[in-house]
Amino acid sequence: MPISNGIKAMKALICMVEPGLFSYAILLFLLLRFLPCMPPFILSMFETCGATPARNGFELGLHIFEVWMGLHLHTIFSGTTWILYVLFVGISFFLHFFRLISR
For this UniProt entry, which segments traverse the membrane (predicted)? Predict the structure, then answer.
């Protein structure tokens, strides 16, 4: 039985989203390095954000921590991985199964 267009589309979507999951962490780190005082991040809560560049080691450690937490919250333990590999594969399995039954 040939592969349907829906399954091909799901495979293409998974191949496009996978690099995006890891590029999210890289882009977040670059955003934190160049614009550290943006509101959703930890350094934006300090009054002296961006005023004293002497604490560069502290800021770098804080940026690495935020990227690490963002990586865990948004890509690894969030629904993205589960949606890609469990929900899409389950949907494609059922579509294929129902097509086999209808033969």
Answer: 12-35, 82-101
